Amino acid sequence: MTAREMREHWLDREVTPLSPILDMTVKYAGHWWNLDGTDAWVRATDSNAIALYEATQKRSAEVLAQIQRKLQH
């Protein structure tokens, strides 16, 4: 997918970055995508990488929720 296509999906709020900081790996249309350094996005197909992305996203969400709770107190 071209960077322009992904940018359009991102602007339409259809893209979820791996974390607020790690935005070179994103989830779009039920798949993980990586920015390949040549201004194109490549869908992740390696099951180990996908499992790592899922675990990282879950952990990132947990850490963010902890930080938000601390800031509210």
DSSP strand tally: 4
Mean pLDDT comes to 92
The value of Rg in angstroms is 14 Å
- What would you call the structural class? alpha+beta
Q: Biggest β-sheet: count, sense, barrel?
A: 4 strands, antiparallel
Lateral strand order in the biggest sheet:
1-2-3-4
Q: What order do the SSEs take from the amino end to the carboxyl end, as H and E?
A: HEEEEH
Number of helices: 2
- The span between the termini is 43 Å
User: What portion of residues belong to β-strands?
Assistant: 15-25%
Helix content: 40-55%
- Contiguous low-pLDDT stretches (5 residues minimum) are none
> Outline, from the CA principal axes?
globular
Overview of the structural elements:
With 73 residues, the protein is of the alpha+beta class. The chain contains two helices and four strands; from the N terminus they run αββββα. It has helices at 3-11, 47-72; strands spanning 15-17, 25-28, 31-35, 41-43. The chain has a four-stranded antiparallel beta sheet, with helices on both faces. Strand 3 and strand 4 form a beta hairpin. The chain is globular and about 45 Å long. It starts with a helix and ends with a helix.
Q: What's a concise summary of this model?
A:
The protein has 73 residues and is of the alpha+beta class. The protein has helices at 3-11, 47-72, and strands spanning 15-17, 25-28, 31-35, 41-43.
